[in-house]
Amino acid sequence: MKIRELRELSVEELRQKELELKDQLFKLRFQKSLGQLDNPMKIRNIRKDLARIKTLLKESQKKGTE
């Protein structure tokens, strides 16, 4: 997911997306441990998307407190 797309989302939508990605990441790690993971790059991409979302949430939190 692009950062441009994420910036258009509200804080609540970002939090919801964060929960979804955490769940996906858990499932992919579980599949990896069982040896059933088809594309290991999925884990990397989800981790990066999760980091982007967390960064945007932190930015919005700082803007609200200043």
Layout: helices, strands, pairs:
Elements: H1 3-7, H2 11-34, H3 41-65
Helix pairs in contact: 2-3
Give structural notes:
This protein has 66 residues and is an all-alpha fold. It has a single domain, classed as Helix Hairpins (Orthogonal Bundle). The protein is 82% helix and 0% strand. The protein is built from three helices and no strands. It has helices spanning 3-7, 11-34, 41-65. Helix 2 (11-34) runs antiparallel to helix 3 (41-65). The longest helix has 25 residues, at 41-65. It is elongated and about 45 Å long. The mean pLDDT is 93.
Helix content: over 70%
Shape: elongated
The CATH architecture classification is: Orthogonal Bundle
CATH C-level label: Mainly Alpha
Notable characteristics:
3 helices; mainly alpha; Helix Hairpins; 66 residues
